[in-house]
Amino acid sequence: MGRQEVALSSASDPFGLDRRNDPQAADDVVVQGNLVVPVNRPVIAHITSLDVIHSFAITAMRICQDAIPGMSIPVWFKPTKVGEYKITCAQLCGNSHYGMSATLKVVPQAEYDRWLAEQSAKAKAAHAAPVDYE
User: Fold this and answer.
1) Model's pTM, two decimal places?
2) Which residues of 44-80 are buried (b: 16+ CB within 10 A; e: fewer)?
3) Where are the alpha helices (DSSP H) in the chain?
4) What is residue 34's three-state secondary structure?
């Protein structure tokens, strides 16, 4: 992962990747809504929030971690079964709380490698031109 800067956060890149100054950010994949991970491999998710306290929960995997504005909190898990799992916000956080959900898709390693290569290529192509953050 490349360097992140909160001031660079936007609707298309809530992580604020510094693609202008950090070459390691060029192929970083920004995923919103649905996550894809390989089966039988440890996963570390860095949980944060831009507005209020939320909570990242995958009940089927017994994961629940608060997302606190301005903090990056790592949570790790190792999915052992291929499938799709519901991700929800487990903290009553405001009017749109009911709609805060996503899907965790656990796939075989070969399928994950193909997906990651496609997403990385898209990220490189989309950000090949210099980005003006001002």
Assistant:
1) 0.74
2) ebebbbeeeebbbbbeebebebbbbeeeeeebebebe
3) 109-126
4) strand
Can you name the residues that pair with 84 across neighbouring β-strands?
Answer: 105
* Amino acid at site 48: T
User: What are the tens digits of pLDDT across the range 32-89?
Assistant: 678 899 999 999 888 888 788 899 999 999 999 998 888 888 999 999 999 999 999 8
Q: Is pLDDT above 50 for 133?
A: no
Tokens of residue 88, six digits:
């929800």
For residue 41, give both structure tokens. Answer: 């491999």
Q: Could you identify the residue written with the tokens 């995958």? A: 58
Under a CB-based contact definition with an 8 Å cutoff, are residues 71 and 54 in contact? no
Q: Which amino acid is at 47?
A: I
